[in-house]
Amino acid sequence: MSLLKFEPFAAVESMDELLAIAYAMEQEAIAGYSELAERMRREGRPDMVPVFERLIGEESEHLGNVVHWSERICSRKPDLTKLKWQPAEMFDDEGAGTVAPELLSAYRAFSMAVRNEERAFLFWTYVAAQADRDRLREAAEQMAREELGHLSTLRQERRSAFHAGTGTGEQAQVLDLPELELKLADHLEAMAARAQTDIVSSLRAAARAARGRANDLRRRPFGQSPLLKNGVASDISGRPVPLCELLLDCYLDFGGSLRSEEERRRSQQFASGAVECRSLLRAATR
User: Fold this and answer.
1) How deeply is 145 buried, as exposed, middle or buried, from its count of CB atoms within 10 A (0-12, 13-18, 19+)?
2) What is the Cα Rg of the chain in Å?
3) Residue 54 and residue 157: Cα distance in Å, rounded?
4) Residue 246 in contact with residue 232, Cβ under 8 Å?
5) What CA–CA distance (Å, rounded) separates 48 from 106?
6) What are 233's strand-pairing partners?
7) Nearest Cα to 188, choosing from 197, 200, 179, 176?
8) What is the three-state SS of the chain?
9) Residue 83 contacts residue 99 (beta carbons within 8 Å)
10) Domain coordinates of the chain in residue numbers?
């Protein structure tokens, strides 16, 4: 039920190992985007080169953060010999390395990057859940929060790329966050009624979580989301996947703009729930 191609088959047992995993994951992403940038140069898509170079820059910054953290905590750079297992195949180019270059766009590239960040976030969430020591669990949770921040940045880039490449004249509905969460819950319950047995309980649990967020937001609203000021197209509110995407964008925006630390953390918790719901929806709609 996850974007993860695999789950860690062993709990992380030391800070050295955790930092080595983080370092290897960032290196893999840099190598993947570098290959795509080079392919765009070779195949006559110079307009796409800056997009992948932007992604290389993002991942290189993340790699530097991991190195600095390791030097501060362990007094050395991450040591890949500390890996007990290889976190392979975390990066997925989703066919961008083989599809005709004419079919690539900035929106598609940033969409791919968003899903890779979601995958990394879910990975660190899993590691934190499996950690048997507070120090390792807190470090894995910090990694997950870092990925959530990266995810917010890339989703903003994706929105910009989308609006630069398309437009819509569709009539929009004025809906607030609780109403959107309730619509998402309705979609999830309808899917559960049609789904195979193995996923029904997960869909119903996600629906309950969405209703819980709606009730929480009724009691303690974050305020008006800038992303909802122009309304919501029925093409979004009427389908669970884009609706979940929109909710995630709203929570990530609030996570970076709310004044209260408590409220920022609360919005990040809601964003985490939206990421997990989005992963479930992908599994359910395959």
Assistant:
1) middle
2) 20
3) 10
4) yes
5) 7
6) 172
7) 200
8) CCCCCCCCCCCCCCHHHHHHHHHHHHHHHHHHHHHHHHHHHHCCCCCCHHHHHHHHHHHHHHHHHHHHHHHHHHCCCCCHHHCCCCCCCCCCCCCCCCCCHHHCCHHHHHHHHHHHHHHHHHHHHHHHHHCCCHHHHHHHHHHHHHHHHHHHHHHHHHHHHHHHHCCCCCCEECCCHHHHHHHHHHHHHHHHHHCCHHHHHHHHHHHHHHHHHHHHHHHCCCCCCHHHCCCEEHHHHCCHHHHHHHHHHHHHHHHHHCCCHHHHHHHHHHHHHHHHHHHHHHHHCC
9) no
10) 15-165, 172-284
Residue 137: both structure tokens together: 């669990």
pLDDT tens by residue, the chain, 286 residues: 345 444 554 678 889 999 999 999 999 999 999 999 999 999 888 989 999 999 999 999 999 999 999 999 889 999 988 887 666 567 787 777 777 777 678 888 888 888 888 888 988 998 898 888 888 999 999 999 988 888 888 888 888 887 776 544 445 678 899 999 999 999 999 999 998 778 899 999 999 999 999 999 999 999 988 888 777 877 788 889 888 988 998 898 888 788 899 999 999 999 999 999 988 998 887 6
Fold for the domain defined by 15-165 = Ferritin (1.20.1260)
End-to-end Cα, the chain, rounded Å: 11
